[in-house]
Task: structure prediction
Amino acid sequence: LCTASNPAALLDSANSAYAKGNFEKASSSYEEIIKMGYEAPEVYFNLGNTYFKMDKIGMSVLNYERAKKLAPYDEDLNFNLKMVNQRTLDKIEPMPKLFLEEWWDNLRSMQSERTWGIRSIAAFIIALFFLGVFITSNKLFTKQLGFWLSILFVAFSVGLFFVSKSSYNNMVNQNTAVILSTSAEIKNAPSETGKKLFILHEGTKVAAPETQGEWVRIKLSSEKVGWVKRSTLEFI
Result:
């Protein structure tokens, strides 16, 4: 029997409902699994697929993005996210970055934070090995070589640690949200009486650096900044 205390059975039930085309039941089951605290990239991925089948573009983008937080380098996920983004009305161009900022982003995105962390630990172990060579060797050249190589690998280890930490922080601390309403008015102030600046549509991903009551400040570029009702979006 599928019980509320058995997420594995509920997942099987959700997958079965999806395979049979019963997307309403599948989405409800996947949502229930998440409410139980069982968060995994495959659950969000399957939920994103389900909402896509139901033509709920905003909810599909939201759950693909949540899956991407947990599995940023999954090829199937990134392909599906690209496909659903083609269905959104608003085509947002990414904000231009300085050369060093773009280089740093490209560096940390080359591998997962876990891989960078493992490499940092490996470099530190190698540094300890060469430190041992420096301490135990009786030959001057070998001692010098061991000393400088230990310094070099410590530097590598520290650098890789900061890349790993930056990659992790970038993944989990992004204040981003997805517009879920069919359309949302962006105003110049967090008030109903604020002037309407522009409109965003369902499925658009936005930076959301600030919340003030029932309003959220969103940013698309240095020129496109404004306030939107909290009820029109959901944080990733």
Observations:
- The chain is about 55% helix and 15% strand.
- The mean pLDDT is 91.
- Strands lie at 176-179, 183-187, 196-201, 205-212, 215-219, 225-229, 233-235.
- Residues 140-172 form the longest helix (33 residues).
